[in-house]
Amino acid sequence: MTRVLGAVPVPLALITMIVLAGVVLDRVYAGSLLTRLLVGAAVGSVLVSVAARRLASWLVAPLSVLALAGWTALALRLAAAHAELPGSLGAVTADAARNAIPRLLTAMIPVEPAPDTVLLPLVAAWLAGLAGAEVALRAGRVLLGYLPPALLYAGALYVVGPNAQPAIWPTVAFAAVAAVGLAAPSRRDGPETGDPSAGLAPAVRAAVRVRLLAAGAAGVAAVVGLAALLAPVVAGQVDDRPADPRRYVEPPQVESLDENPLIRVSGWALNPDQRLLEVRT
Q1: Distance CA 186, CA 139 (A)
Q2: Over its length of 281 residues, how does the chain's per-residue pLDDT go in tens digits?
């Protein structure tokens, strides 16, 4: 039981960090469908890696991709039903894959959850969970395993840009969850190695421990030094307005006839016998 409980904090931390990234991104979406879909992606990606820890490492990625395909199909079906889009799942998926990035960055805010606006966040969240779980759980590098969820969180902040209030509490929660996961004892897969200095002579063992303490102190000093150097720079950016990535994307071209349908009336007046429009109730 203790062994099982000891294996829970790191996967739970990874899931929570990915969900927080979804919460941050969902601030520019209408409704909460995106958050629910990303919760499923976070849980699914991490649990696949947890369930496959005893398998060969090269088997995890194909299994995770199969699970991703299944969850993506279900998520796109839910998003299409939410947006009331016609067409088959294959056609909707192909259209979403072709236009995921431009439609996400050119959609009006609040963004309506649709297959083309949820596909990219969904896949990014799943890949972040897969990469983070493999590095943190299989390799035992918890801090390095936090890098994919951190990049996902930074990407969510960048996509939101200046179009929402500052994400203070999600950021605080993200840092707190990461700290809890780091504080929890982690166990690397493979045979137990024990204390590497256990078989050494007392004098050599003492020297090894002194070197380890010195290395740890040097690491702490480096972190403190970086914090002291970067703190003024970060503080100076607090009042700056975030860049909006939407200004770098060219919006879809719209024909003048579609911008104002009344323009068609003049053409219809030349031939009033033709059908202009249909109204159904």
Answers
A1: 10
A2: 445 445 688 999 999 999 999 999 999 999 899 999 999 999 999 999 999 888 888 888 899 999 999 999 999 999 999 888 888 888 888 888 888 888 888 888 888 899 989 999 999 999 999 999 999 888 888 888 999 999 999 999 999 988 888 888 999 999 999 888 888 765 555 444 555 556 666 777 777 778 878 877 887 788 778 777 766 766 666 666 777 777 777 765 555 555 566 666 766 677 777 776 677 76
Cβ contacts of residue 122 below 8 Å, gap of 6+? 37, 38, 41, 71, 72, 75
**Residue ranges of the domains in the chain?**
2-190, 198-231
Residue that the structure tokens 């299944």 belong to: 70
Structure tokens at 66: 């199969």
Overall pTM surpassing 0.85 (yes/no): no
Please calculate the CA angle 129-27-117 and round it to the nearest 5 degrees. 65
Reduce the secondary structure of the chain to three states and give it as a string: CHHHHHCCHHHHHHHHHHHHHHHHHHHHECCCHHHHHHHHHHHHHHHHHHHCCCCCHHHHHHHHHHHHHHHHHHHHHHHHHHHCCCCCHHHHHHHHHHHHHHHHHHCCCCECCCHHHHHHHHHHHHHHHHHHHHHHHHCCCHHHHCHHHHHHHHHHHHHHCCCCCCCHHHHHHHHHHHHHHHHCCCCCCCCCCCCCCCCCCHHHHHHHHHHHHHHHHHHHHHHHHHHHHHHHHHHHCCCCCCCCHHHHCCCCCCCHHHHCCCHHHHHHHHCCCCCCCCCCC
